[in-house]
Amino acid sequence: MKKVAPWLVDLLLVILFCVIGRRSHDEAILTGLLKTLWPFAIGLALGWIAVRVLASRGAGDRPIDGIALWPTGVLVWLGTLCGGMVLRAISGQGTAASFIAVAATVLALFLLGWRAAVTALR
């Protein structure tokens, strides 16, 4: 469970990001959530894959620290943001500059923020 917990926290926060976005635009949350979520969920998975690849090329069998801000948090954040935006663009969903700025900020606050808080409390 310890290995899965950071990924689950990230996933829940990405879902929360999508729910807040849909709610702030008065869009149906439950019926449209999957449409908003899937690009960012795949981006999140890509970020975690990048973390695994980096760890496997690093110090051998060193375990991945899912709570570390660097490199885990940054790679997960960038994967979620960039992967999500690319997939949104490919699928014809909006990628206005203002949306990218808001998404970058909120996802950073969520995906890096919880890691910073846990690290500070350690």
Automatic annotation (TrEMBL):
The chain crosses the membrane at residues 7-25, 37-55, 67-90, 96-118. Pfam families: DUF3054. The keyword Cell inner membrane does not apply. Keywords: Membrane, Transmembrane, Transmembrane helix. It comes from the Bacteria. This is DUF3054 domain-containing protein. It comes from Nocardia aurea.
